[in-house]
Specification:
The complex is a heterodimer. By secondary structure, chain A is an all-alpha fold. Chain A has nine helices and no strands. Classes of the chains: A mainly alpha, B mainly alpha.
């Protein structure tokens, strides 16, 4: 099977249809990434925008990377940030926005959360956003710390140390020692 | 892996149902529109006249055909020119 890198490179060399196979491989995963962070409706609305941006930026993809997921998640992250900026600007009539995707996740999870889940959610929410992002890319998207670093545009060592700190903070909750 | 086991409970919180096929199809349609627009913009001058008649939505058509092949061959290996020269099929969704 051809790698994502091969297909994306081909799509950049006059075969844009090759990009569709990349879309097919990752469309459920990218939709899940969006849905976990912004809810299902927003994911439905934004998925096409991710593909258009990815297609437009495909020449910037390093074909040496066999798996395009980290790159696509990075694009999806930017689409989400733009979405939140627009949404909050409209909602607050021009107030200075503080983009915190976790607010949306909390809204989604709280509806069906049990007490322990709430405790876990609270612990994750209390994490610094940069640690939380790495943690969720590993726990939710099943990325390695190195792949999470690609998504966020940070050195792999930084991603590993952020993950380490996040796990240390969550450990009491996981072990049932919270509160 | 210990690390993932430790994160397993958190991972459960991130479980979402997969999207409906129609959602994925719609997103691909958006992509194909962008692809078609780019191809029209970069088409050689000689192809302009012929392209006007046939290239309005050739890739949207291909995406329709693609969508009908869920789980099967994607048609990705088909040359772009081949896609563009395909006769426009009846849109099954058209009134």
């Amino acid at each position: 099977m051809e790698t994502d890198g091969v297909l994306i490179e081909r799509s950049a060399r006059g075969r844009p249809d090759a990009f569709v196979e990349v879309v097919r491989r990752h469309e459920v995963a990218v939709h899940g990434y969006l849905a976990r962070r912004a809810g299902r409706q927003a994911a439905d609305d934004l998925l096409g925008e991710v593909w258009v941006r990815a297609f437009g930026g495909r020449r910037g993809f390093d074909p040496a990377h066999a798996d395009a997921r980290p790159w696509l998640y990075g694009i999806a992250r930017n689409v989400l940030r733009a979405h939140w900026r627009t949404w909050r600007a409209a909602d607050r009539a021009g107030a200075v926005e503080a983009v915190d995707p976790w607010d949306d996740v909390i809204d989604r999870l709280d509806s069906a959360a049990a007490a322990r889940t709430r405790e876990m959610v609270g612990a994750v929410r209390a994490l610094p956003p940069e640690e939380r992002e790495v943690l969720l890319l590993v726990a939710w998207e099943q990325l390695t710390p190195a792949q999470a670093a690609l998504v966020l545009g940070i050195p792999p060592g930084t991603a590993r140390s952020r993950l380490h700190r996040a796990r240390a903070a969550l450990r009491p909750v996981v072990a049932g020692e919270g509160k | 892996m210990t690390e993932l086991e430790e994160l397993g409970e958190l991972g459960e919180l991130g479980r979402v149902d997969p999207p409906a096929a129609s959602i994925l199809d719609s997103a691909r349609e958006v992509l194909w529109s962008a692809v078609a627009a780019q191809m029209l913009a970069t088409a050689p001058p000689g192809a302009a006249d012929a392209g006007t008649a046939r290239a309005d939505t050739p890739h949207a058509d291909a995406a329709h055909a693609d969508a009908a092949h869920a789980g099967g061959e994607s048609g990705v290996g088909q040359a772009t020119d081949d896609l563009a020269s395909q006769p426009r099929p009846e849109d099954p969704g058209a009134p």
